[in-house]
Amino acid sequence: MIRKELRIILLSLGISLLLTVAKFVAYFFTHSVAILSDALESIINVVAGGFACYSIYLTGKPKDENHPYGHGKVEFFSIGFEGAMIFIAGILILFKAGQYFIMQPELEKIGHGIWLITGTSVANLLLGIYLVKSGRNLRSITLSGNGQHILTDAYSSVALIAALVIIHYTGLRWLDPAVSAAMGILILRKGYQLMRQSISGLMDETDMKVVDQVIGILNRHRHEHPNWIDVHNMRVQQYGNNYHIDCHVTLPYYLELTLVHEEIKAMENLVNKELEGHEVEFFIHVDPCIPSSCPHCTLMECPVRSHPYEHTIGWTRENVLPNRKHTA
């Protein structure tokens, strides 16, 4: 799968390089600061694509003594780097737009620029959709992040084309720096979003969607494993395409060690089987049951039950994430 990701990102890098050249050709034809802004953003596509190639290469390396959880965290560095580059490009674009508001150069050959930017916009749109779809299928945040950036480039190019058409037919040259400034703001926003995603991953911010998926899997199968009295203190960390989950599981205190191991292994196997596209590593701490567990314990043939069964407590974020046993 890693080799496929590398092929896709290398294709993206090659196409981005060609489109960047085309945009600079359009700038030299027209002297439009809006087209220059678009070309500057495309340079970031190329730089970020190169870094993405390296991050995907590292992600594919196996775990070792220095990296016991693998190398997947580098993907968050990748999208953070790309976000920072996009943010810097946005600042430069706003600065250049300000200069052109003060001193507006004569625009030339707008028609040539329109056709060139239209071609690059269509190519970027198709490439961005392909990368986002591939990232979703391969569970690669690097491909998805790169695709989202390229889609932003394509959408901003549509506004640029509209402005160039208006300038071509009306001669309103002030639209050129105005559109450039609008593109700069849009680019700044996208850069911030990618950096925010990067920081969240590096700080191990909990992905509640994944937590809900794991809880859902356990809820669907808990009737097959009545020894699973409760699950709590769950924490989820993402390492590229893999997840590390640690949690506490309450089991009957009298179970033999071999049976405890089987119950824990069953839980791990179920989540790995149903959380498709991800490798999930568990670290599970086993807690013994206590008398207050009896009212919601579904092990009806328990030989040491001290209180009759009353009701089942559904597992949700509210009782699975905190570090406390479930009580009736």
From TrEMBL:
Coiled coil: none annotated. This is Cation transporter. Pfam families: Cation_efflux, ZT_dimer. Residues 224-289 form the Cation efflux protein cytoplasmic domain. It is found in: Membrane. It comes from the Bacteria. The chain crosses the membrane at residues 7-30, 42-60, 81-102, 114-132, 153-172. Belongs to the cation diffusion facilitator (CDF) transporter (TC 2.A.4) family. GO terms for molecular function: cadmium ion transmembrane transporter activity; ferrous iron transmembrane transporter activity; zinc efflux antiporter activity. Keywords: Membrane, Transmembrane, Transmembrane helix, Transport. Residues 9-203 form the Cation efflux protein transmembrane domain. SUPFAM superfamilies: Cation efflux protein cytoplasmic domain-like, Cation efflux protein transmembrane domain-like. One of its GO terms (biological process) is intracellular zinc ion homeostasis. One of its GO terms (cellular component) is plasma membrane. It is a multi-pass membrane protein.
